[in-house]
Amino acid sequence: MPGFDYKFLEKPKRRLLCPLCGKPMREPVQVSTCGHRFCDTCLQEFLRCGVFKCPEDQLPLDYAKIYPDPELENFQKPGTWRGSLDESSLGFGYPKFISHQDIRKRNYVRDDAVFIHASVELPRKILS
């Protein structure tokens, strides 16, 4: 499955987009020889076509040199986290996963990686 089809409040940073599908990366992997990142599925589909070169720089590609992105490997999938809701859990003021009720109360917006405090006030009607 290629990258995420979510609508974001802000345009995702370019380095978070998969060069193959153009969407925010899902299950990102990194080619250790050149450092380029792709959705795991997108890269697998690309390699299935028989092209064993990095899609970005055309350098030879070896399966043994493809790893889960070390920068993102500690991110948890929604629903798997069972810790406390201590807001210091990510180190920059926001919990990784919180309930929908807490999202409404605290005015957070979810982007599947972290929670970002919304900078706009939403009408109470929408939040109820």
Write a brief structural summary.
The protein has 128 residues and is α+β, with helices and mostly antiparallel strands. It is built from 3 helices and 5 strands, in the order ββαβαββα. A 3-stranded antiparallel β-sheet has the order 2-1-3. Strands 4-5 form a two-stranded antiparallel sheet.
What does the model show?
This protein folds into two domains: 14-68, 2-Layer Sandwich (Herpes Virus-1), CATH 3.30.40.10; 76-128, no CATH class. Helix content is 16%, strand content 12%. Residues 74-94 and 111-125 have low confidence and may be disordered. β1 and β2 (37-39) form a beta hairpin. The protein has 128 residues and is an alpha+beta fold. The protein has three helices and five strands. The strands form two sheets. It has a three-stranded antiparallel sheet. It has helices spanning 40-48, 100-106, 124-127; strands spanning 28-31, 37-39, 66-68, 108-110, 115-117. It is found in: Cytoplasm.
Which features would summarize this protein structure in a list?
2 domains, Herpes Virus-1, 16% helix, 128 residues, alpha+beta, 3-stranded antiparallel β-sheet
Main CATH class of the largest domain? Alpha Beta
Poorly predicted ranges: 74-94, 111-125
Q: Output the strand order for the largest sheet.
A: 2-1-3
Query: How many strand segments?
Result: 5
Helix tally equals 3
- Element order: H for helix, E for strand: EEHEHEEH
CATH superfamily of the largest domain: Zinc/RING finger domain, C3HC4 (zinc finger)
Distance separating the two termini: 33 Å
Shape field: elongated
Tell me the major beta sheet: 3 strands, antiparallel
Tally of distinct domains: 2
Mean pLDDT: 69
CATH fold topology of the largest domain: Herpes Virus-1
What share of the residues lie within helices?
A: 10-25%
Radius of gyration: 18 Å
> From the helix content, strand content and strand pairing, which structural class follows?
alpha+beta
